[in-house]
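tokens incoming
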């Protein structure tokens, strides 16, 4: 399905509310689905929430509701139904048949947006991999009509069924190829990673549209694309944040999170998100002007853990302060996160944030004496890169230094000069 097909489509948004979901959470999620649809050019003409004790594994919603949706679609001229819940392959197939509308779920919408925003070879490969994995179990539905039309001869495979076998093979081959390509790109990245290992790495993380790329641009010379659009950033950009400091500090901007981010996307973007895993500090950027900011924070923390970055220290950065009207919200956020930094990436000088980052590392650095024999004189340059040299004395038994750095870097230096 291409975007030109979706553009200007009239759609109904549908959600099924099970008892474990609060009204506000369902409403927020639906509003977000509307934003996601809008970024694909889909026009939302109506929405419907059905409260049910549980989801029917086969039909998803009850037949009474199906009639209601059909009626609403007729009245509003919708020919697309977008479900906020994830639909199983058989549910999607069933609903498409019953509603006689084109059916999409939240996962598919997000996959479409990622597909449209992928710019580099790597992100394109990552998105395609996720899309194919989504498609594979759904091929049956796509070909079922062929067999139905022909009546299906028992005992032998129908034309549709044979076609599915062929398609499955082709898709599996393509998936294997993409995986191989991504592994290759990942290996190339390993060289880069080694070069950066002696720097302190800071990674911007947070909900989509929180202002990560804006902060990246304000803090460094990077020109990352900033847009009031969900998932504008799909690639990782890394720049020097502070060139004076030793060790040098690098800052990375990467893809954001959203609730119910399809797991196949997290899996295929594992390598892109690796920058957060390898970081010494995560800047968790939060749009404090958003009513659902607390939920955004929870979703982000959960995603951070999911990608294996749960152990990396985090500094919360409450952004978009210029848009926050309620004093109470500010006070509440400050109380819940006393160490957080409050900023408007658009309005404020980012110097305070930069100082906050430096202070964070300063607190964690240790000062230690070091002696380098004259035979190891060549290693002095490395010491100056990996640590801050506070004092140097040339004595008979070698060079005596007082250096300050992170425990990890000091460890590395010692290993290098063999003491
Ligand atoms: N009013 C206001 N808008 C901001 C601020 N920071 C970012 N934005 C806007 O929020 C939108 C998303 O920003 P972006 O940096 O692309 O978010 P990202 O998805 O987290 O990278 C853009 O339209 C930015 O101009 C801020 O402090 N105040
Ligand atoms: Mg961005």
């Amino acid at each position: 399905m291409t975007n030109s097909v979706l553009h200007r489509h009239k759609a109904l948004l549908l959600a099924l509310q099970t008892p474990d979901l609060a009204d506000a959470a369902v409403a927020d999620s639906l509003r977000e689905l509307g934003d996601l649809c809008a970024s694909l050019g889909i026009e939302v003409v109506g929405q419907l929430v059905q409260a049910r004790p549980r989801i029917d594994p086969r039909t998803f919603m009850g037949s009474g509701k199906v009639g209601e949706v059909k009626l609403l679609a007729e009245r509003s001229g919708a020919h697309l139904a977008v479900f906020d819940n994830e639909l199983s392959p058989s549910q999607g197939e069933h609903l498409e048949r019953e509603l006689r509308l084109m059916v999409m779920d939240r996962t598919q919408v997000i996959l479409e947006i990622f597909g449209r925003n992928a710019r580099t070879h790597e992100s394109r490969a990552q998105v395609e991999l996720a899309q194919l994995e989504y498609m594979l179990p759904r091929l049956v539905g796509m070909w079922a009509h062929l067999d139905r039309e022909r009546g299906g001869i028992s005992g032998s495979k129908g034309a549709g069924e044979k076609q599915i076998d062929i398609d499955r093979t082709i898709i599996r081959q393509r998936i294997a190829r993409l995986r191989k390509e991504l592994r290759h790109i990942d290996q190339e990245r390993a060289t880069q990673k080694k070069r950066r290992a002696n720097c302190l790495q800071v990674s911007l993380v947070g909900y989509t549209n929180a202002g990560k790329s804006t902060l990246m641009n304000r803090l460094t010379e990077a020109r990352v694309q900033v847009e009031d659009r969900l998932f504008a950033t799909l690639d990782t950009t890394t720049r020097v944040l502070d060139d004076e400091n030793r060790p040098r500090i690098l800052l990375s901007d990467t893809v954001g999170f959203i609730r119910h981010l399809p797991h196949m996307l997290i899996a295929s973007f594992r390598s892109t998100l690796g920058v957060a895993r390898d970081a010494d500090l995560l800047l968790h950027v939060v749009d404090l002007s958003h009513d659902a900011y607390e939920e955004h924070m929870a979703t982000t923390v959960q995603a951070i853990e999911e990608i294996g970055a749960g152990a990396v220290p985090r500094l919360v950065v409450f952004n978009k302060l210029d848009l926050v009207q309620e004093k109470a919200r500010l006070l509440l956020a400050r109380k819940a996160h006393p160490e957080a930094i409050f900023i408007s990436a658009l309005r404020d000088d980012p110097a305070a944030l930069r100082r906050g980052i430096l202070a964070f590392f300063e607190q964690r650095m240790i000062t230690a004496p070091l002696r380098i024999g004259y035979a190891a004189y060549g290693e002095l340059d490395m010491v100056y890169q990996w640590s801050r040299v506070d004092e140097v004395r040339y004595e008979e038994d070698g060079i005596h230094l007082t250096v300050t750095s992170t425990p990890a870097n000091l460890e590395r230096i010692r290993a290098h000069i063999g003491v």
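note: The chain has four domains: 3-116, 118-185, 198-362, 365-417.
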